[in-house]
Specification:
3 domains, two-stranded antiparallel sheet, 40% helix, single chain, 352 residues, 24% strand, 11-stranded mixed beta sheet
Length: 352
Amino acid sequence: MDKENLELYTDYLLSTFGYATATGLSAMVNGQVSHDQVTRFLSGEEYTSKDLWQEVKATVRKVEREDAVLIFDDTIQEKPYTDENEVMCWHYDHSKGRAVQGFNLLNCLYHVEDISIPVAFELIKKPIEYCDLKTHKLKRASLVTKNELMRAMLDVCVRNKLLFRFVLFDIWFSSKENMIYIKETFAKDFICALKGNRLAAISAEDAQDNRFTSIEDLPWQEESMFTGWLKDVPFPVLLVRQIFTNKDGSTGILYLACSDTTVTREFIQTTYQKRWPIEVFHKSLKHNAALGKAPVRRVVTQNNHVFAVLYAFFKLECLKIKRHLNHFALRSHLYLKAIRVAYDELQLLKAA
């Protein structure tokens, strides 16, 4: 690994407030590093999730605990004007209800207390091109699903002997295969969100006789919790319903499943709230570490930029621990310093 250039590039990602370019980095260090050197770094050896683990491992070992959680989720960085390839292509964005052009990043975040560290990642690749029979448009497809990638990432985390109690994920990763893999392959537990139409039975006899009903149609009461059997999942789970109020005043309902049947309703809700840091993580990648602000066009350079962004987030997290300031406060501090330097330079130019 080119550690020297990695440190320089990631410091630049955290320092810049515009586009992150090779010429911009070169100018920042007064030409001590050429833009060609930066380009060679990004287009050289392709960095992977294994390389990320090697960089964060020592810090994880210092903070890890048995009650930590692993959080899986993906995010899409829109890049509508970048040339399409197997990484930079069209992905369905659930938050917008439509496909957008950009890259799709699947992450595994290790969270303990108020510390969040990325320990694995995968850029979703769609190398297969085909013609859609209905629209006659050229489309792309992956060789593996995001759920399969999630299980492979989890397998690596277990082999790396990470200490954790629960795996947390949302509706889009709550497949029966993921549940069975976590519970039966690794003897770990999960808490996940479920769609209201997910089929469940609230007695072993009903499950055995294939008498299932939608979760939303169960006899819910305000504080109720059921021990249930999800269809095609061979072990019982605790089912919880949480009613909340959205920002616009509307009411939302969240259904949760927990594979540990010994815990309380409050514990399930409190633990699932620990999934929120991955939303903050994705926001910080985009706003504080220049995830979408590098004009990289080849698959290798796009991958290595994403790797560097994840490492930059880790460096920012280490600063957060040291300075007791969140990522956005740290960046605001840097921004204020930059404004002051620019203001002082303007006064000198005016006085000259």
